[in-house]
Amino acid sequence: MSGLLTLADVEAARDLIADVVRLTPLEPCRPVAAKLGGPVWLKCEHLQRAGSFKVRGAYVRISRLSPAERARGVVAASAGNHAQGVALAAGLLGAATTVFMPIGAPLPKIAATKGYGAKVEFAGATVDEALVAAQEYADETGAVLIHPFDHVDVIAGQGTVGLEIVEALPEVKTIITGIGGGGLISGIAVAAKALRPDIRVVGVQAAGAAAYPPSLKAGHPVRLQSYRTIADGICVGCPGDLTYDHVSKLVDYVVTVTDEDISRALLLLLERCKQVVEPAGGVGVAALLAGAAKVEPPVVAVLSGGNIDPLLLLRLIEHGLAAAGRYLSITVRTGDRPGQLALLLTQIAEHGANVVDVVHRRNDPQLRLGEVEIALSVETRGAEHSDRLVSALRQAGYTVEFAPGRLS
Predict the structure, then answer these.
(1) Is the dihedral of CA 234, 239, 243, 246 positive or negative?
(2) Does residue 404 have a cis peptide bond before it, meaning omega lies within 30 degrees of 0?
(3) DSSP labels for 15-76?
(4) What letter would DSSP give residue 305?
(5) What's the predicted TM-score (pTM) here?
(6) The Cα angle at residue 357 between residues 355 and 358, in degrees rounded to 5
(7) Residue 209 gets which letter from DSSP?
(8) Is the Cβ–Cβ distance between 375 and 361 less than 8 Å?
(9) CA dist., res. 24 & res. 398, Å (int)
(10) Which residue from 227, 298, 310, 230 is spatially nearest to 264, judged by alpha carbons?
(11) 370 pLDDT more than 80
């Protein structure tokens, strides 16, 4: 256990941020509790200042710089949440901020980072590539690099989330949260395991950017060759050395979820729990819903961030409805005869489904002579209702195909 942070480190960090961060609430999550058969609570860090937990670690790190270091300014690399946390913390502490963000970073996160007073530069397609550019900038200018996860002060600051959870819910048995680089779960595990060694700490990664499972298997950090997920906040290609040590020694296990799992979870959080979170912020709930994590209630799932692009939110709602069987995208081929479209729409209505969108095509070269293709978006009451509708259309003689997924 040598080399790891201690409870005293996390408690000292809490003293530093006491007047800066918000004590975020624990909210019950009854839909997931019903599935698990025991209490489930949501730690609402998406309601934190700057929209995520990141301000905790950023403020601790920057507050401990010397006046001379702060005068040189700070630099960070981030897809958005760390950027906002650093920009807010640096502004409160009087340090100029430059943030390197990946090309294609969400526009609302870019705008918010600038709104907190940071200068934004773009470099690379991933956070890892932006981090290389930030380090080069630090070497050239003397600005202090504020690493997004692999620093003791950052981990200590994020660990205050764990303190708050255990103090608010002493009977908690499991804490589950997302993992990108690992700063948040490392800090939570330090605090939770020190206060209650029996608490299980579970990490969740997006399947398309899951560096921890192969790293833990190899016994050292392993860099992914490629990675992609809708959860940009945890899209990190390699664990940090320090965070890997903490996760490997303190975290009970790590699971993965698909982007489809994530979209279902965000839809449930929005519709049933009235919580708007970004994809990375909802992966803990996604793991619980998908059955990826075997947990003992009471469970606390950390909603780590809420900085979501509204356009992505629209796509996620649509995709989440589709994944839940409530939004059906199909193409139907039928004969090009007068009244055929009206007949098809009538049959759909008779089965209690609602047509949202229709595209009628007859000039596709793949169609046979005298055949048309009708693309339909249909609202249904769930997966069983969708299956019954498709079966009924096929029995009526229509060729029905499912449209390819549009989430990327």
Answers:
(1) positive
(2) no
(3) HHHTTTS--PPEEE-HHHHHHHTS-EEEEEGGGSGGGBTHHHHHHHHHHTS-HHHHHT-EEE
(4) B
(5) 0.86
(6) 100
(7) G
(8) yes
(9) 53
(10) 230
(11) no
Mean pLDDT for the chain overall? 93
Give the pLDDT of residue 404.
Answer: 63
State mean pLDDT over 9-35: 97
Query: DSSP per residue over 119-166, as a string?
Result: EEEE-SSSHHHHHHHHHHHHHHH-PEE--SSSSHHHHHHHHHHHHHHH
DSSP assignment of 251-287: --EEEEE-HHHHHHHHHHHHHTS-----GGGGHHHHH
* Token pair of 69 as six digits: 């270091």
Q: Which of 128-132, 188-192, 202-206 shows the lowest per-residue confidence on average (mean pLDDT)? A: 128-132
Mean pLDDT of 91-100: 97
CA angle 374, 378, 382 (to 5 degrees): 140
Joined tokens for residue 180: 């990108």
Rg (CA), the chain: 24
Cα–Cα distance measured from residue 231 to residue 209, given in angstroms and rounded to the nearest whole number: 9
Taking CA atoms, 232 is separated from 118, 158, 242, 267, 360, in Å, by: 20, 19, 22, 18, 36
Q: Which residue has the tokens 């760390």?
A: 82
What is the number of other CB atoms lying within 10 angstroms of the CB of residue 19?
7
| C-alpha span between 85 and 250 (Å, rounded) | 26
What is the Cα–Cα distance from 203 to 295, expressed in whole angstroms? 12
SS3 of residue 330 by DSSP: strand
Cβ-Cβ contacts under 8 Å for 377 (sequence gap 6 or more): 327, 328, 329, 355, 356, 357, 358
Amino acid of residue 161: V
Closest by alpha carbon to 62, among 90, 82, 99, 85? 90
Percent of the chain predicted with pLDDT > 70 = 98
In tens, the pLDDT along 285-299 reads 999 999 999 999 999
What was the pLDDT predicted at 139? 97
